[in-house]
Design goal:
Layout: E1 4-12, E2 22-31, E3 34-42, H1 51-57, H2 61-64, H3 70-81, E4 85-88, H4 91-104, E5 113-115, H5 116-123, H6 132-138, H7 149-167, H8 169-180, H9 193-196, E6 202-207, E7 213-219, H10 222-231, H11 237-245, E8 248-253, H12 257-271, E9 286-290, E10 300-304, E11 316-320, H13 323-337, H14 355-358, H15 372-383, E12 397-403, E13 408-415, E14 418-423, H16 426-434, H17 443-453, E15 459-462
Parallel strand pairs: 1-4, 4-5
Antiparallel strand pairs: 1-2, 2-3, 6-7, 6-8, 9-10, 9-11, 12-13, 12-15, 13-14
Helix pairs in contact: 5-8, 7-8, 12-17
């Protein structure tokens, strides 16, 4: 399949590499198609094995009590992997655990990998399921040690042998080569970045030679999104220029898409990256504020974003990128509902009927044909679809996100549509709740919150 490949399987105490630990390792190495090594060992995870894991794997606490620690077998494992491609079924799982275990003992694992799940999908696209149980059934494979490390390695080897008999060696080699042909980074970036990039949600930052970011983006899969910039750099002038100028890449992992969106919006506005346009805070938002006195001559006042009080948001109507857009929108509303442009402040004050009244586009509040109260009620009705929403909660709320892959939990705190910050533990939460809140309206946060709080899947709590 490859010049050197090592098929490996792990058993663990759970599914989270940052929290759970390895209990068993098994591998079989092939060089030039010949088996050259076979090794397996139990590993003391230094933590209890949950009951359901014991039932699944048959590995219990007594079996691993006197087994070596991972640090005691690390050198042996590295020797088996050296110069070889690591193959595993759902390799992200096994590779993630190995990287975490090696990191705990101060070693950065840099290993080429290939996933036999993806290999099965390439070779047998007509089938929907590519788990080990499905593969065993399709290829008539058996094992007496399913969910034990060497038993599952033997299933992988049986799958490769069966595929070779059915499809031929060339098909296996071509599929493996396709999977190994990973996207490349620009030559001026460190190739080791490919090994470090997480496949979890978060924000990434591209830098040139200074501390001002070129571009800030977010994704539910940081690695895939970063690589997409370089695989499509021919698609736009902006992408090409970023690729040419970038010298350094950073990323910040998040608990989920909501967390990543909040962080991206915050960082873009704080750091003003050169190539971000949509989220950069260059515009000056406008909104119309309705006078509470129905007899006032100027019933609407144009309010700039910096003067918007989030506590009184229900008195505002519409969000506009400029004064011109706000005025034109209000003018269209006035014409559609036969409202008086003079009372709305769109025309200078005067005596007698306004021009719109003379051409039957105003019902005549300006000349006594309609009462100011009735005109005011019609104005309220016309504006209702544009009204901004009052804060619907009695105080602060928290929106929680948890990500099982990076074991990250984040709680985001809001009040009066203002983002007050994020905490990751109860101590920080208690401190955050004691802080004096400064309320400032931000349109991006407002729109994002509207979408999230109406989603039944959102983990929202009152604070």
């Amino acid at each position: 399949m490859l010049p050197s490949v090592t098929f490996l399987d792990l058993e663990t105490t759970g599914a989270m590499p940052l929290r759970d630990r390895i209990t068993e390792i098994a591998l079989v190495r092939f060089d030039n198609g010949i088996e050259t090594a076979r090794w397996q060992t139990l590993v003391n995870p230094e933590q209890p094995i949950p009951a359901f894991i014991q039932q699944l794997t048959t590995i219990n606490n007594e079996m691993v009590a006197n087994a070596p620690l991972f640090k005691e077998v690390a050198d042996t494992l590295l020797a088996f992997l050296e110069g070889s491609v690591l193959a595993a079924h759902n390799v992200r799982f096994d590779h993630g655990f190995l990287k975490s275990e090696f990191k705990r003992i101060g070693i950065t694992l840099r290993q080429k990998v290939i996933c036999t799940v993806k290999l099965s999908r390439l070779l047998y696209p007509q089938h929907k399921s590519h788990g080990l149980d499905a593969i065993m059934q399709r290829h008539n494979l058996t094992t007496i040690a399913r969910h034990r490390a060497m038993g599952d390695v033997d299933v992988m080897l049986g799958f490769i042998e069966s595929a070779q008999l059915e499809l031929g060696d060339a098909a296996i080699r071509n599929a493996a080569a396709k999977l190994m042909n990973a996207p490349s980074l620009p030559s001026h970036l460190d190739a080791n970045l490919l090994d470090d990039m997480p496949e979890t949600p978060g924000v990434y930052l591209f830098y040139a030679d200074n501390e001002l970011p070129l571009y800030i983006g977010k994704s539910v899969n940081i690695r895939a999104r970063i690589l997409s910039h370089f695989s499509s750099d021919h698609a736009s002038t902006k992408e090409m220029r970023i690729t040419q100028e970038i010298k350094r890449v950073e990323w910040i992992t998040a608990a989920g898409d909501f967390s990543a969106l909040l962080l991206e919006s915050k960082l873009v506005k704080e750091r003003q990256p050169i190539y971000n346009r949509q989220l950069r805070n260059e515009r000056q938002l406008c909104s119309w504020k309705l006078n509470t006195n129905f007899e006032a001559k100027n019933l609407l006042e144009l309010v700039r974003e910096s003067d918007i009080n989030p506590i009184e948001l229900g008195q505002l109507f519409g969000t506009f990128k400029s004064k011109h857009q706000a005025v034109e929108s209000l003018r269209s509303i006035a014409e559609a509902h036969q409202l008086c442009p003079r009372y709305l402040g769109l025309e200078a004050a005067g005596s007698g009927a306004c021009f719109s009244s003379q051409i039957k586009r105003c019902k005549g509040v300006c000349c006594g044909k309609e009462s100011p109260e009735m005109h005011y009620l019609r104005l309220q009705q016309a504006l209702i679809a544009h009204r901004l929403k009052n804060w619907p909660y009695p105080g602060k709320i928290g929106i929680r996100e948890h990500n099982g892959e990076n074991d990250k939990t984040q709680l985001h705190i809001f009040e009066y549509w203002t983002y007050l910050g994020m905490v990751e533990n109860d101590v920080d939460l208690a401190e955050k709740l004691q802080e004096n809140a400064h309320f400032k309206f931000d349109l991006d946060t407002y729109k994002l919150l509207l979408k999230v709080i109406n989603n039944p899947k959102t983990q929202l709590m009152m604070l």
